[in-house]
């Protein structure tokens, strides 16, 4: 009897629940129908997720099979680049190349598959033009617009500290950050300029670490290289701050940003000259030695111009010497060209370098975040052709 009572209890509770629902609703829900609908919904959800998972697994298997067949058909096993770094010889100098499983020149439609693959790589000219040459041309364009179309501003230009002194050479900061419409054009230049500029440190870091391993592995060399990488990032950040902080509204922040930019640029030139000489990069070709000599000239004269800006602006701020302000502005105009030219020299130092995204065949089927590698800078001599399979 006790067992029968226990079996009847759930049925009585169910009837009480249904009875209570009658007082709230006209038609009580059928328990069997209600729970069966919920089960159907959960079953459909489970089936959908299982189908989605199966589709992803089949897609990964199909991709793996296709690439494996293509690899076996187009090239032998010896033509597939190993995961370890290999070296290319060019004019007696070895360039180490970080390479992951990549197909080498296999024939496809009467054209090397390798060439088709690397035709889509990012050219060094794009990085040089947009990352180095564009800001210099853009800045000089803003200055020229001021002198051509806003000459009345030039003739009437004064500063708050010395309102009675008329300066016919307004500083660069007014043309790129205060006056319209030049400042909007300069903002567009900065927007286009910054992404290519981020690649610059990795080009030189790879070159400095590759040529002479006995030098690059020394502690002092790595320390200088560490500071070099930081100055390469601080310099464009200082330029962004110069653009953002208005000279008239937040002068102190603007002056601090200019100091950060000019100091980072000078240390960047110094570290580049030291590392390029110590690593043997200047000895690669005659052109590399010429670019190093030009960089050394820019370093010596650039330091002198940078120091003169601080002295001349101090003379103007304390004693309102108009000639000192003209000297300060003229040095600024020259330093703009120095900065653009110094970074543009990478076009001649890395004329045969391509930037590409490498895909690792061995990592297919693993997590998506691990499939794609970072940007790999590879040196391919232009005068050599890749061997066919």
From TrEMBL:
GO BP, sorted A to Z: GPI anchor biosynthetic process
Cell cycle listed as a keyword: no
Protein keywords: Membrane, Transmembrane, Transmembrane helix
Domain of life: Eukaryota
Any Gene Ontology CC annotation: endoplasmic reticulum membrane
Entry keyword Cytoplasm: no
Domain CWH43-like N-terminal: 126-352
Region (Disordered): 1-39
Transmembrane segments: 126-148, 184-204, 225-245, 251-275, 296-319, 325-348
Protein's recorded name: CWH43-like N-terminal domain-containing protein
């Amino acid at each position: 009897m006790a067992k029968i009572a226990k079996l009847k209890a759930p049925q009585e509770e169910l009837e009480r629940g249904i009875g209570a629902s009658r007082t709230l609703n006209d038609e009580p829900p059928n328990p069997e129908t209600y729970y069966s609908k919920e089960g159907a919904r959960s079953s459909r959800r489970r089936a959908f997720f299982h189908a989605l998972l199966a589709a992803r697994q089949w897609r990964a298997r199909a991709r793996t099979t296709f690439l494996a067949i293509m690899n076996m058909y187009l090239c032998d096993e010896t033509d597939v680049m190993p995961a370890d770094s290999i070296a290319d010889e060019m004019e007696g100098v070895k360039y180490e190349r970080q390479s992951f499983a990549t197909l080498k020149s296999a024939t496809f439609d009467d054209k090397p598959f390798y060439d088709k693959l690397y035709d889509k790589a990012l050219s060094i000219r794009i990085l040089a033009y947009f990352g180095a040459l564009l800001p210099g041309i853009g800045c000089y364009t803003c200055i020229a617009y001021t002198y051509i179309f806003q000459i009345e501003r030039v003739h009437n230009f004064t500063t708050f500290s010395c309102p009675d002194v008329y300066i016919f050479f307004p500083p660069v900061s007014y043309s790129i950050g205060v006056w319209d419409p030049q400042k909007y054009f300069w903002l567009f230049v900065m927007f286009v300029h910054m992404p290519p500029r981020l690649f610059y440190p990795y080009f030189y870091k790879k070159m400095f670490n590759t040529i002479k391993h006995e030098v690059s592995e020394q502690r002092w060399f790595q320390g200088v290289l560490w500071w070099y990488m930081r100055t390469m990032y601080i310099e464009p950040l200082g330029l962004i701050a110069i653009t953002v902080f208005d000279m008239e509204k937040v002068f102190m922040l603007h002056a601090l940003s200019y100091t950060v930019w000019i100091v980072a640029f000078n240390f960047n030139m110094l570290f580049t000259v030291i590392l390029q000489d110590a690593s043997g990069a200047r000895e690669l070709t005659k052109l590399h030695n010429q670019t190093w000599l030009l960089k050394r000239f820019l370093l010596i004269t650039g330091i002198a111009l940078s120091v003169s800006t601080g002295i001349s602006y101090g003379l103007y701020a304390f004693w309102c010497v108009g000639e000192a302000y003209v000297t300060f502005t003229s040095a600024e105009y020259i330093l703009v060209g120095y900065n653009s030219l110094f970074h543009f020299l990478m076009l001649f130092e890395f004329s045969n370098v391509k930037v590409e995204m490498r895909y690792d065949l061995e990592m297919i089927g693993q997590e998506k975040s691990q499939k794609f590698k970072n940007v790999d800078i590879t040196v391919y001599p232009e005068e050599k052709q890749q061997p066919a399979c």
